Structures are given as structure tokens and as C-alpha cells.
Amino acid sequence: MKAANFAVIASVIAVAAAGCEIPDNPADPDATPARWRQDTIGAACVFTPERIRIIGLTEIIPGAGPGDETVLSVYVDVFDAYDSHIKAPVRFRFELYEFVPRSSDPRGERLMISDIDLTDPDINNSHWRDYLRSYNFDCPMNFRPVPATTYIIEATCTTQEGKRLSDKRQAEYTPGGPDR
Q1: Vertex 98 angle, CA 94 and 100, to 5°
Q2: Burial category of 94 from C-beta neighbours within 10 Å (exposed 0-12, middle 13-18, buried 19 and up)
Q3: Cβ contacts of residue 121 below 8 Å, gap of 6+?
Q4: In which element (H, E) is residue 39 found?
Q5: CA 135 to chain centre
Q6: 155 close to 93: Cβ distance less than 8 angstroms
Q7: Nearest to 81 by CA among 36, 40, 46
Q8: Which are the contacts of 134, defined by CB distance < 8 A and separation ≥ 6?
């Protein structure tokens, strides 16, 4: 009986001491998992952008008068690894495409490109809407959109680590619509 108890206790201690992880070798930094190394930006700062989302407040705003230009007003959420809204020093590129229905890629001809650099803190703060925890960008459109037409807005975010995040959303241009 003592031998059986000893065997059970010894095996429990052996399992607890060994653990479930593969032991890392501190002498070999290549053997250490990347999430534990402090020399990578992701490990040193976990609050880096992981994904973006163009939100439903995004719209095409017609000019007030005949000489005024139409504006693409884009609202973008930036999320970290914990799915929290964050501000980050990134670069955005907004592209507007014609919508092609019944196509595997609904992006038709590219109509507009707008690049915005948020690495400067003052510019970053000017686009941040704290009450929404989102960014807002008003991009002047260099063409007259056709009423009752659907467009595709694509946002691409480039982080300081060089990671590219993107999202697409449809927007219909309806000047003088129900909310105006």
C-alpha cells in the first residue's frame, strides 16, 4: 500500500513539475516563443493596432452650393489585441471605387485616393473623436458623385511596425436623403 501511495504522489509531483509548456532555453533566444521576447515590438507594447473597421456613420456629404465640393466623411475604429478602441500613430489611405454588383470583387474603377498621416500627435488629435472612440476624416472629392449610386470605400491602415490592416464598406450617395 505504501508503494502504491508513493507511486501516485511521485507521478503527481512529476506532472506538476514538468508542466504543459515546452521549456524554453534562455541560452537560445531563437527557442523562446516570440510572445515572450522583449525585443519584439508586439511583446513590448501589446496596445498596437490589430484591426480596423469603417463604421456606419461614414457618408458622402454633398456640397452646400453649386461651387462647393462634395466630401467623403469616413469614421474608422482602430482596435488592439484586446478589442479595445485605441489611438495610434498610423497612416491611412482611403480609396473610393465604383460598385460593381454581382461580381466576385465589387470594386470597379478607382475614383479617388486620399492619404492621411497620423504620426504627428497634433494631426492625430485633430481627427480623433473621443466621444466615439473613433477617427473621423473628411476627404474632399475631386469629382461629382452620381446621385443614388453605390460606392465602395476601402480604408488601409499602415502601422509603425509595417503591418497593413484594411476594411471595406458600401456607401450610397443620396443627396437630400431622409436625414437631410
Answers
A1: 130
A2: buried
A3: 89
A4: none
A5: 11
A6: yes
A7: 46
A8: 55, 75, 76, 77, 78, 85, 128
- Amino acid code (one letter) for 135: Y
- Edge-first strand order for the sheet with 91-99 is 107-117, 91-99, 149-158, 164-173
Name 140's bridge partners: 71
Q: What is the pLDDT of residues 110-154, one digit of tens each?
A: 999 999 999 999 999 999 999 999 999 999 998 888 889 999 999
3-state SS track over 77-123 = EEECCCCCECCCCCEEEEEEEEECCCCCCCEEEEEEEEEEECCCHHH
pTM: 0.72
